[in-house]
Amino acid sequence: MNHVDMYRDTGERLFKNGHSIYINYFCESSKPHLHVHDFIEISYVASGSGIHILGDQTYEVQKGDLFLINYNIPHEFRSLDSPSASPLKVYNCVFKPDFIDVNLIDYRDFSDVIQYLSFRSVFSLPSNRIDDVKILGGENYAIEAIYKKMLEEFTNEEEGYIELLRVYLIELLIHIFRSLKKSSNNDSGTISHHAELIDRSIEYLKANYSVGTKLADLASQSFLSPTYYCKLFKDYTGMTVSEYIQKLRVEEACHLLQHTNDKIIVIAQTVGYKDIKHFNEVFKKITGMTPSVYKNRMKQRT
């Protein structure tokens, strides 16, 4: 299934009685169902084996794996299409941030929710651990016990169940942070992994600088939230994504001005600028001169 076939799950069919939370225990199909959604999902693999597709990457999963899936991240779990394979069974906790606190109504990713709730400072977690997609491995009975409690409350709907679900969700988050803290000694490996992700983004930008590239797309390719991706990118390159794209475009424009006879307006369009005035402004900001002055100086040197 390619990305044009994806469907968007708004969560409206899942959420009931005006409460933005949904819990289930699901036996995953082996059929493709790649999708994105307008909510946060925390999924725990309870049994069986299978795969988890995230964007263009495919990961083998097994009992104990837990995934944090933000808004707009293409993904799907699949059981293995084999008679000998145990079907993949997954607990899913689906919620919108405002379920935890009404002040979170405009928040869209797990990392920002954590910052708001100040869990990061409470647990002294390195910031580069928050956005890991897969954060657990092996059996984790405490996590599974929370999911079972949540599913029971969600299913039975006894008086006060929404308040209990809110408490259990916070409990789930706390257990996740404890697991993150235990694994925080592996920061160097995580940093190396994130450097590799940014390197891949840079290669992508070098090949596609002339077309409009959305920040959300770059972040989703790296399986990071846009907020955290921006921080990583700037820490790694010393500039924002937008500044880096402008740098690539101007560098190519300089090359074309020096080695071709193309008109400046044609070069601007070639490197991705539809507005010649904006191109001139960006070019001068980066090089200290207008494209025409740069072209004349290059001609004088030859």
Could you write a compact summary of the structure shown?
With 302 residues, the protein is α+β, with helices and mostly antiparallel strands. 47% of the residues lie in helices and 17% in strands.
What can you see in these coordinates?
The chain has 302 residues and is α+β, with helices and mostly antiparallel strands. It has two domains: 3-185, Regulatory protein AraC (Jelly Rolls), CATH 2.60.120; 243-301, Homeodomain-like (Arc Repressor Mutant, subunit A). The chain has helices spanning 110-117, 119-123, 141-156, 161-182, 187-208, 215-221, 226-237, 241-259, 264-270, 276-287, 291-301; strands at residues 7-9, 21-27, 35-37, 40-47, 49-54, 57-62, 66-69, 75-79, 89-95, 134-136. A hairpin with a 2-residue loop joins strand 5 and strand 6 (57-62). The radius of gyration is 24 Å and the shape is elongated.
- What summary fits the major beta sheet? 5 strands, antiparallel
CA(first)-CA(last) distance: 53 Å
The parts where pLDDT drops under 50 for at least 5 residues are: 118-132, 187-191
Q: What's the helical proportion of residues? A: 40-55%
| Annotated CATH topology of the largest domain | Jelly Rolls
CATH superfamily annotation of the largest domain: Regulatory protein AraC
Number of domains: 2
SS summary, helix count: 11
Task: Estimate what percentage of residues fall within beta strands.
Answer: 15-25%
Q: What is the CATH architecture assignment of the largest domain?
A: Sandwich
Q: How many strand segments?
A: 10
Order of helices and strands: EEEEEEEEEHHEHHHHHHHHH
